[in-house]
Amino acid sequence: MFTKNKIKSELDLEQHELLEHAQTRIKQKKRLYVHFVIFLIGSVFMIFINKILNYWATYDWFIWAITFWAFLFVIHTINVFVTQKFMGQAWERSQREKLVKKQKKRIAEMQKEIETDFPLSQVNKSIEPKGL
């Protein structure tokens, strides 16, 4: 009876993790698409300012600005589609497990050091009431 609830809670936890991961991926892709739309609108706007409004008309500065922005957009795309595959959920889990293991080892070392510096038998003798 108790095992069914435990198995169900583990499945719910796993499903919850999968759902959270899917939601973060959707947010990342949505931000990328919004970035792309803003990039297109911004590029057209910069061309309009330079060519139609004749702002610094002697120099085509919009080419450099659009090239730089396109470079940033490519970096954003690589981060969403390439980096997430290599450093995705499994990588995060393994890194978390390594850090937890390292912290447990450090805590065990500190406990051992405390026990050697302050043995429990000496602590108990100094704490015991003297009137008994």
Number of separate strands: 0
Rounded average pLDDT = 83
H/E order of the elements?
Answer: HHHH
Measured between the Cα atoms of the first and last residue, the distance is: 51 Å
Helix content: over 70%
| Rg (C-alpha, Å) | 30 Å
Approximately how much beta-strand content do the residues carry? under 5%
Shape: elongated
Number of helices: 4
What structural class is derived from the secondary structure elements? mainly alpha
* Quaternary organisation of the protein chains: single chain
Number of domains: 2
Main β sheet profile? none
Low-confidence stretches: none
Tell me what the structure shows.
The chain has 132 residues and is mainly α. It folds into two domains: 1-87; 89-132. It is 86% helix and 0% strand. α1 (2-52) packs antiparallel against α2. The longest helix is centred in the N-terminal third of the chain and has 51 residues, at 2-52. The chain starts with a helix and ends in a 5-residue tail after the last helix.
Main traits of this protein?
132 residues; mainly alpha; 2 domains; 4 helices; 86% helix; 0% strand
Task: Break the fold down into its secondary structure elements and pairings.
Layout: H1 2-52, H2 61-86, H3 89-117, H4 120-127
Helix pairs in contact: 1-2
Short description:
By secondary structure, the protein is mainly alpha-helical. 86% of the residues lie in helices and 0% in strands.
